[in-house]
Design goal:
- The protein is mainly alpha-helical.
- Among the domains are: 35 residues, no CATH class; 67 residues, no CATH class.
- The protein is elongated and about 95 Å long.
- The two termini are 49 Å apart.
Length: 147
């Protein structure tokens, strides 16, 4: 009918609902909107979505990883050469330092074997509880498009 009445209806349709009885243009527009509102949303084509890195994306930076490994090895060899030590000597000394850690683990297991039966059972139950908690946390549903 009038542009000002149509404008008032478009700004606030509920109080101006009587305008639809007098204006065919607004009535047709309201019917079209009501028809669209009842329609189902368009389905999402999951194949069209880009893959995240953890979902099997095809890009793999293996060249960067291998290049980084070569740089680290080159730096390690340069440091061995600068100190006058052979890489074999460094590996042997590293294995010798591992003996300290190995003896510490041996002492820890020996002390657990020497503990009372109640302490051994408590340790076993605690081990199972912690691992069960980790399994529960790992099996939670991810938060994403399918969550």
């Amino acid at each position: 009918m009038t542009d000002s009445a149509c404008q008032r209806y478009l700004e606030d349709p509920e109080p101006n609902a009587a305008h639809l009885e007098t204006c065919a243009t607004c009535r047709a527009e309201a019917a079209g909107l009501a028809e669209k509102a009842g329609a189902e949303p368009a389905p999402i084509d999951l194949d069209a979505l880009p893959l995240a890195p953890w979902e099997g994306s095809s890009h793999r930076p293996w060249g960067l990883v291998l290049g980084g490994a070569v740089v680290v090895i080159a730096i390690a060899l340069a440091l061995c050469d600068a100190t006058g030590m052979s890489p074999l000597h460094v590996a042997e000394s590293s294995l010798a330092s591992m003996e300290g850690i190995r003896s510490l683990l041996t002492r820890a297991t020996a002390s657990l074997r020497a503990a009372s039966l109640g302490m051994q059972i408590a340790f076993g139950v605690l081990f199972l509880v912690v691992n069960a908690l980790l399994i529960v946390l790992l099996r939670r549903a991810p938060r994403g498009i399918d969550a």
